Amino acid sequence: MRIGEIAALVGVTTRAIRHYHHVGLLPEPERRPNGYRAYSVRDAVLLARVRRLTELGLSLDEVRDVLADDAGRELADVLEELDADLARQEAEIGERRRRLAALLAAGPGEGEPLSPALAALLAKAPQTDSPTAAMDREHLMLLDAAGAGGEEIYAALGPLAADPAVLALYERLDALVGAPVDDPRIPALTAELVAAVPDGVFAAIPADGVVVAGFKEALLAEFAPAQAEVVRRVMEAFMERGRG
């Protein structure tokens, strides 16, 4: 058989066959005096097996292992490994679909690439035009994307997110734009913000923390001076409370 004939018989392209020759997966057959390759039935059987294995999802290196002599891997071993890999991919796809479902459920213009747990948390929060509330949301999204959040933390924050009284705290923080760092409103607002956070949040935070070095400074730089002073004090109080 010529290359076109064996390709038609097995159901592959001549280009694929030439590639298999190039990578050493399929031995080169003898050539006729006119220079054409002469393929045998044995070549067709081997090529058909290569096709079946690649259709199962095996890489060419894995196919080579299967086709090797007794020193190569057994087909059952390769297929078990492939099945485990497909199971992992299936789980990842399922998680991605759950995230997409949460985005679609949020409605046009409201969806963000969030974990389902954070999406559920933010859905509890009442609507507000507070700039600092919007910043808080963005910071949570950042930590979520970095894998520094967690279902336990978000669940513990649920009652706080759903509490309408929290909006008043955001509004008081908004009002500190343009105020000096020694504004007399800072201590009372700091104390109320610290008291508002449920104890369960601290129990859910890992012992090694949830943020990388430098995050605190970058976070404080987002705020006006008086607001940053409140946030700094709140963070320090949280650290003390977490150690307690």
From TrEMBL:
SUPFAM superfamilies: Putative DNA-binding domain. It holds the Pfam family MerR_1. Residues 1-69 form the HTH merR-type domain. Keywords: Coiled coil, DNA-binding. The keyword DNA-binding applies. This is MerR family transcriptional regulator. The keyword Coiled coil applies. It comes from Streptomyces caledonius. Residues 72-99 form a coiled coil.
